[in-house]
Amino acid sequence: MALIFNTFTRVLEEKMRLLSITSVNCKRNKMYPIPRLRNPTWLTRKERAPIDEQLTSENREFLKEFVQDKITESTERAKTIVTNKIQWTPKMQRTGVIAKKIGVYPLWKKNGDMICTTLLQVMDNHVIRYYPPENYESPRQLRPRVYNKKGCLLLGAEIGDPSTFTKEYCGLFQDSGVLPTKFLARFFVSNDAALPLGTNITAKHFQVGNYVDVRGKTTDRGFQGVMKRHGFKGMPASHGVTKTHRRGGNIGGGGEKGRVWPGTKMPGHMGNRFRVARGLKIWRINTKYNVLYVSGRAIPGETNSIVYVFDTKLPLKKPMKELPFPTYFESENDEIFEEDLFDDEIHIFSSPSITYNEK
Amino acid sequence: MFSLITKSRSVNDWNKISKTLIALSSQAAPIEKSVKTKDTIRKQILEYRHVYPEFLPDPKIEFRNSIREKLERSDMVARRMQIDIPEFYVGSILAVTSSDRHTPGKTQRFVGICIKREKCGLRASFILRNVIDHQGIEIMYNMYDPTLQKVEVLRLEKRLDDELLYLRDALPEYSTFDVNMDTEILPEGTPVPVNNIKVKLKPRPWLERWERKHLKGVQDLGLPERFYERAKELDTPWEKYDLMKEYMRTIPEEEQLEIYGEVQSELHKLELQRKKIRRKRVFVKPTKLA
Amino acid sequence: MLLHKINSQIAQTFRIFEKSCFHTSSPINEIQKQTRLRVVDNSIIGKQAMAEGKPPKCIHVYNKTGIGKIGDKVLVAIKGEKKKGILVGLKQNQKLKVPKFDSNNLVLIDDNGTPLGTRIHVPIPTILRTILKEKTQAKGADYTKLLGIASKFV
């Protein structure tokens, strides 16, 4: 009897195993299974539905004060956090920062050339979490697996009112002691670059003359035609052309290839996608307002949008000099910074006009 | 509650601005200390928008950011400390001396009438026009370009229009100015004179359809009636009553006060300096007779 | 009667065309083939052509875009002859601090870069010093001779 039951359960288990999704995937394509998309653990619902809590104005004031106290407390604490400095080598990767694109304005070089720079304001970044390489599971499992993995650092910026966030979202910030922030970002860092939780990162993390990559979400332009989206030429305005002035024209051949090929450029949604502008030089840093002046004006995103700034990945634009690793700490050396740090090539506004000397 | 707080803050700011203003004005004229009301001070500050229009940011709401504007303003003031960029208007005659990289060791001086002022912030620029050797020449300069050595106003005046681009189609004598012109110094305290000159245009073809531009400083264009009819058809006279458009196009007065209140002390210092220099120039030493 | 009316109408419309020679967009003032230019030196052929009211016509621009910029060499048809010249002033909008002229100015040169005239009677932009120096090759034509006959620089 027992034997029959045992065999029955084994068969059932086998059947169940075959039915489960993973096993099906494995069987269908053992080499390249379809990557399973899972959201990262910090991607919880952020905003809470607003509830009228029927508080008296005094109580509300008290709550506000309480939050303010907490904010000052946490920022004070963030300043005291220090780790030991590590010698930087070119293969090491530091964390990036969350910044805000605040506009474009020109600077002049010492030879009289005008360059356009975009201003990126580094917000009050705090380290929220650190996932060591063995603990971090990528949301997308790709084959072949990446060995020599890096750790993942979760940063938050712009502290918000905690009462507007959900419980789960606030839970993310419990370990770090930072109040819940409005924006989060993750950066992969080499093992030594792990920062203690709650560390504040400022614009001094970057150096004038180095290159950075900026990742941002491009301006949402909605559903656009082929001329705006892909820069097609359109068709003539006259000469007997009717109703096809801004259309794309032919989208495929006939015969054996008589279908629309994948990747054909057609009208569709334009913008609102993450794009990276790579290899932008830092010309100037304002340490008072934490502003980076970065070359170029075509940085993805509108003015006042959030961008992510990190050391460039372009091999030829890697920094030559040593970087503050893992980040710049205020107390480590009492070097007094001027308010504005300029690149050597840049003309400083408070210096006299440029003259060209005869050679 | 929140709104109340902001209100009180703005009132505080206002008080601060007015206090500094009173202090500054008292330096200039100690007699009328108590007489100066809030209104006159306000007017004084708002006068800056005509003198330094480039300090007002682009009113387009998508491009605004208070920190960027503040940084830009501080850079502009830093540059103004190095080079004296005087008050001038479209229609004033300027002489710009700039260092030229194509002729090292030398400077270029160009005299001409300002026919356009555009853009704001560090990007502010203006166009000068002159006719030299019967050849019309225009040069565009960036106002805050560090290669500019000197900007002089030879004749300070306004014209009837905001842009004088029609001088390109006018007879050459209207945009001919002597290169070796002397500076005309206005007596202190006089308002900026308006030149009522009516310019005569060349016969058509023109660069633009001037009959559609509502020009005031132009003589009768002498076109057939149908041109004016068409211009009337395309005219949009209701736009000046469009409050929303007006709002989107301009920066509110309160914000202007805040902006100019921030840079006021520096600008005032520069103005005093300029006045001193001008006084020196007006006083001419009597030359010895015989 | 009707025919006469139509005829008169057609004549009227033609007259309008003659008079207005309208354009719908602001001109970009590019120098390309068939553009009329103005000779600004005192070479005999140039002076004659300008006096006759038959200014030279550009028939080729020696660069890769086919659109003449300041300092470019062009081939012009002038008084039934083919001559080379250098553009020394443009109507087109220029960069900051580079002068923009009211006419497209040309100085005639020969194959060695020697100007045909002895004097240029309008100002020429200083940026030409750098441009012409760059264009002059070691063994080719020497365009910088043109700068020697200029009367004024702006």
Automatic annotation (TrEMBL), chain A:
Q: Where is this region: Disordered?
A: 234-264
What Pfam family does this protein match (any one)? Ribosomal_L3
Please provide one cellular component term from the Gene Ontology annotations of this protein.
ribonucleoprotein complex
Q: Transmembrane residues, as ranges?
A: none
Keywords assigned by UniProt, alphabetized: Ribonucleoprotein, Ribosomal protein
Keyword Ribonucleoprotein present in the record's keywords: the answer is yes
The record's listing under Gene3D superfamilies reads: Translation factors
What SUPFAM superfamilies does the entry give? Translation proteins
Family to which this protein belongs: Belongs to the universal ribosomal protein uL3 family.
Query: Matching PANTHER family, A to Z?
Result: 50S RIBOSOMAL PROTEIN L3, LARGE RIBOSOMAL SUBUNIT PROTEIN UL3M
Q: What name does UniProt use for this protein?
A: Large ribosomal subunit protein uL3m
Source organism phylogeny:
Eukaryota, Metazoa, Ecdysozoa, Arthropoda, Hexapoda
UniProtKB/TrEMBL annotation, chain B:
From which domain of life does this come? Eukaryota
> Quick one: where is this thing mainly located?
mitochondrion
Q: Which Pfam families match?
A: Ribosomal_L19
Q: Gene Ontology cellular component?
A: mitochondrion; ribonucleoprotein complex; ribosome
Where is this gene product found? Mitochondrion
Keyword annotations for this protein, in alphabetical order, are: Mitochondrion, Ribonucleoprotein, Ribosomal protein, Transit peptide
Instruction: Extract the InterPro entries matched here.
Output: Ribosomal_bL19 (IPR001857), Ribosomal_bL19_sf (IPR038657), Translation_prot_SH3-like_sf (IPR008991)
Q: Per the similarity annotation, which family is this?
A: Belongs to the bacterial ribosomal protein bL19 family.
Protein name per UniProt: Large ribosomal subunit protein bL19m
Organism of this sequence = Hypothenemus hampei
UniProtKB/TrEMBL annotation, chain C:
One Gene Ontology cellular component annotation held by this UniProt entry: ribonucleoprotein complex
Q: Which domain of life is it from?
A: Eukaryota
What is the predominant subcellular site recorded for this chain? mitochondrion
InterPro entries, per database record: Ribosomal_uL14, Ribosomal_uL14_sf
Q: Which keywords annotate this record?
A: Mitochondrion, Ribonucleoprotein, Ribosomal protein, Transit peptide
Coiled coil located at which positions?
none
Q: Where in the cell is it found?
A: Mitochondrion
Report any Pfam family annotated for this entry: Ribosomal_L14
Q: Which family does it belong to?
A: Belongs to the universal ribosomal protein uL14 family.
| PANTHER family membership | 39S RIBOSOMAL PROTEIN L14, MITOCHONDRIAL, LARGE RIBOSOMAL SUBUNIT PROTEIN UL14M
Protein name as catalogued: Large ribosomal subunit protein uL14m
Ranked from the top, the taxonomy reads: Eukaryota, Metazoa, Ecdysozoa, Arthropoda, Hexapoda
